[in-house]
Amino acid sequence: MKAAPSNPNRLRLIKLIHVARRELRMDDDTYRLLLAGMTGLDGATSTADLSVPNLHKVLEQLKQRGFKVRPNKAQKRPMADDAQSKKIRSLWLELHGLGAVRDPSEAALAKFVQSMTRVSALQWLSTAQGSRVIENLKQWYNRVADKEAI
Of 14, 99, 12, which is closest to residue 49 (Cα–Cα)? Predict the structure, then answer.
């Protein structure tokens, strides 16, 4: 069979189906028999052959067998909203505006902070660590701004 067309949700659904399969302890043969036996899938035995609506059908079938979708742990943690964290985020976005930072995301900022402090989230920084990150970002900002002034 030919592969189904690309869709942004498609990969997420395929990953979720494979998580469900693993959590339900389905071996490969059982999983492929499940797919082959489902109506409307035209005998497909692989998620690679399925369209997004059919992937939803498979996921619903797995939910009926006991799979429960849990939110991603990274999505549970709220963004830090203290003054230091806001300043760090502001400097990070300013550096992005100057072209010094390629990825303005919170995840990229967290990686940068972790490389400096060995702390993986802004809300877990001590005041001293936060100050160190702010000073480092200010110095970086000044270097970039000075280059642009020349």
Answer: 14
